[in-house]
Each structure stands twice: as structure tokens, then as C-alpha cells.
């Protein structure tokens, strides 16, 4: 009794039971009040990938455990997304044909999925506009395969 | 070019599905080869008119009317079944009668075309049109198959609980496919994993583990017939619910659930 | 929907051509066309117009709005107004691309037209992003989007709806007991 230990979420969730109180859960730092203040000040400066990388999903799961901070936590997660939305939209819709790794570096995994959706819309439109939509090109896999064969031969 | 590519994809898809279901003939109606026909009845013709916006009589040897503005608009608007299916999160009611009717039209046209010479300008125009209609048809059926594969337990559950007289959301072929797909998935899960589990963990409820269509998803729509007093649920606690009117030809972004009945009735179309 | 599919829909729209061949009335599944007589204007769907043009069998008459003066007005109006102004065609972007790519020799001042249409498009897309952001901030349940064209909706739409769906999930967290269902995160 009273021991602190780290458990994976699925196990903690399995053991957690409102009636018997086998264990209580401490919020990970990033969801605690000190960080919540940072998020509400300017959510855009935060490197969610470093802190997450599943900031939203994991945060939502934390709400399964009864805590007086739950209401505030849920609010913070939602507001964080709302304030980061514009930047994700703009960066995903402006970057055409360039290396996007710097743009997504600080995004959490859900945000990255969203970024990809924005990129797809943009790329699809741009290639249509330039008349490439109707051309069939060899898949990059095939091209890489050929290159590899060459280098093997060279070696 | 891309019409061709899409078609090849469909054929490949059909091939995989055949291996999957081990039921060689089912998919033929999607490939438009050797399909079962229904005799064209006035009812079909009406349905056909609704889909393709042409006058009521589908014909090979035609009567009159020109490919005028009205027609073309009708034609564009009536790719609706296709667009609705593409944009709606759930599987919509099957339009199998229309599909059969269109297939029949295409078959007739193709029969006629076989008899013409290759370099004929007129025949080449007919061929292009046939290709275009066939593309829409394939794309429509393909988006339905994708949803059936994604939501099969729920689709079948809906079919099971359907009351007498309520139209089915599946065509007979789709129903057979969904059942087969379910049986194969279950068998696969069992062979690969479940039978090696302890006995108390060998049951899996597919209805619970396969995600349901997300009816809360937002959709874009265009209004065809004016609707009044549509209730919009609030998004946050501070907001309260309110009603909106949907004016004819206006466009909206709204949760699918709110307007699902209007999509079904044809009062709005998804875009 | 992909851009090429939106283009496919645009190709159903009518356009006027002047053929250089003769052909009797032709009876397509979607309706009747023709008759075609050399030098006499006739309406056909865009897909056919482009095809005939590629085979050098006709001259294309650009739609009335495809004109530098008219498009300048449209661009100015779009820039001055906060809302989306009505476009001369629901497929203005597709028409511009197809006609300029395949029939540029039939369109006076093709390059200027291309730039004007692109400017208008850019202004509209910027507005669309602005309204998407405010929609998200206000957490609205409904937005009216008159005059937006299918092509415009399709470039940003999937991104926006995906973001809204995500937000909806986060919001169900706020309801007591709401998080119990959110296992599919």
C-alpha cells in the first residue's frame, strides 16, 4: 500500500475500480496544472510531439480515472486543439512539393494525421491543375527498386 | 486515361474479392460482363430517368428531345446517387433497380456498337459516353462495397432488424457478399488466433469490435427542396439548440445525423 | 472526391462549338445531340467539345464570362466583399483549365484570363480558410456556405471535416461519462 509505480495505461485501466480503490492515478506532468497554464497561454509554442506524442488520445483516456481535475483537463485538451488548428491548416495547405518534416515535427500524432489530410487535398488539386492527374507514373517503390539494383551492380 | 485506370482497379478489386469470397460469379454484375438482366418496365424507366435526368424513356433508338441545357443540368444533378454515396458516412439505401436499368442500357448500346465499324465518328462518340456512364456506375458500386467491407456487422444487423415493407439498404448481390464477408472474417479470426486462446476468450462479438459509421461526421450539402425548422443541436454547454431553414439552392456544413432523413428523401444532396 | 472527379462532373456541362463536319442528329443515352453542320454553332457537353477539338473537328466558343473585362470585375468584387460572391459558373475553375489547355487558340487573351481566374480562386480559398478557423473557434454547429463551388469544397473540405470530427470527440470528453465511449481514439 502506498507504493508508487509506473504501469501501462491498459493495465491501470483494468485494475482501476471505483468501488475498491485498488489504485489511484497520478496525472502525467503534461496534463498537470502547471502545464495547463502553459497551454492556455500559447498552445502554439508547445512541442506536442516531444510531450505526447499522443497528447489528445492519451489525455482523453486519463479522464477514465476519477479526478477533481477532469473537467479542467478536458477543457484544456479541447482548447489546445482549437488554438493550434489554424497553424496546422495553413502549414498543410501551403507546403507544396517541399520537405514537410520540419512542419510536422512539433505536431502530435492526431495532428499529423490531419496535416496529411490537408496535404492530400492540396497535392491532389495542384497536380490536377498542372495536368498531372491523368498521367500514370511508376510508383516510387519501383523506381527505388531499380536504383537499388543499379547500386548493387556497381558494388 | 484515368477512366481506364479506374476500371482496371475495379477489375482488380473484383478479382481479389473473388478469391476472398470464392464465389466466382457474384462480382460479375459489377464488371458488367455476363450479368443477370431484369426486363425493363415502366417503373425501371422512371427510375432511370431519375438517375440520369433524361426523359422517361430509356432508348437505343431514340425519339426526340435535344441534348439541351435542361438535359445536361438534369444529367449533372442526377449523378446524385453517386455523390451522395461518396460523401455519406453510412451506407445508403440500395438503388439496385436503377443500377440494373443502367447496366441494361449499356449492354444494349454496346451490342449496337459491336455492329458498327471502328473508325466511325458517331460510334466513337457513343463509345465515349458509354465509358463515362460506366465509370460513374463502377465508382458508385465501389464506394458501396468499401462501406460494406468496413461496416459489415452493422450493415447486416440493420438488414436483420429491418421491418417488413421497409426497403433494404442492400441489393441481393451485396447482401450475399456481406454475409460471405462476415463468415470469412469470422473463420479467419478463428483459424489464425482465437482457437489458440484459452476457451473463455474464444468468443468475439464483431458488432462490438468493428467500428460503426460515424453519423456525427460533418458533411457539406446543397438544398434541392426548401426545408423549414431543422433542429440543430448545440455543440457546447453555453450554446442552446436552435432551428434553421434550408433555402432552396443554399449550401451548408452540418452534422450528417441532423439531415440524414433529407438525404434519403432526396430533399438535399451531399457535395 | 478527387479533383479529377470534380472535373468529370464539369465535363457534363454544355458548351457551344462550331463544327467543321456534317453529322446527323446523334442519340446518346443522356439525350440527343446535333445535327452538326459545318459553320453552324451547336451545343454539346464539354467532354465531347474537348474531344472534337483535339481531333481538329471544331472551334470552341468560350462562355460569355471568359472575358478579361468581366473577370476583372469578378476579381475585384471577390476581393472587396467579405463573403463568397456568386461565380459565373459552378465549374469556373475546371472550365478555365480545360478550355485554356485544349483550346487556347480559340480564346482571346488566354494568359490574362488564366491569371485573373487564379487570383479569384486564391482570394476565395483564403476566405475559406478564414471562415474554417472562425467556425472552429466558435465551435459552431452549422455554417452556411453559399456560392462555394464543388472544387473549392473538395480541396479543403476533407481536412476541415476531419478536424471537426476530432474536435467533436474531444468535446464528448466534457460530458460526464462521455469519455467511456471514447475508446477508439
UniProtKB/TrEMBL annotation, chain A:
Keywords: DNA replication, Nucleus. It is found in: Nucleus. One of its GO terms (biological process) is DNA replication. One of its GO terms (cellular component) is GINS complex. It comes from the Eukaryota. Required for correct functioning of the GINS complex, a complex that plays an essential role in the initiation of DNA replication, and progression of DNA replication forks. GINS complex is a core component of CDC45-MCM-GINS (CMG) helicase, the molecular machine that unwinds template DNA during replication, and around which the replisome is built. The GINS complex plays an essential role in the initiation of DNA replication. Belongs to the GINS3/PSF3 family. Component of the GINS complex. This is DNA replication complex GINS protein PSF3. It comes from Anolis carolinensis (Green anole).
TrEMBL record, chain B:
GO terms for biological process: DNA-templated DNA replication; double-strand break repair via break-induced replication. It is found in: Chromosome; Nucleus. It comes from the Eukaryota. Residues 121-192 form the GINS subunit domain. Residues 213-271 form the DNA replication complex GINS protein SLD5 C-terminal domain. Keywords: Chromosome, DNA replication, Nucleus. Belongs to the GINS4/SLD5 family. This is DNA replication complex GINS protein SLD5. It comes from Anolis carolinensis (Green anole). The gene is GINS4.
Automatic annotation (TrEMBL), chain C:
Keywords: DNA replication, Nucleus. GO terms for biological process: DNA replication; double-strand break repair via break-induced replication. Residues 65-169 form the GINS subunit domain. GO terms for cellular component: CMG complex; GINS complex. Residues 3-61 form the DNA replication complex GINS protein PSF2 N-terminal domain. Component of the GINS complex. This is DNA replication complex GINS protein PSF2. It comes from Anolis carolinensis. The lineage of its organism: Eukaryota, Metazoa, Chordata, Craniata, Vertebrata.
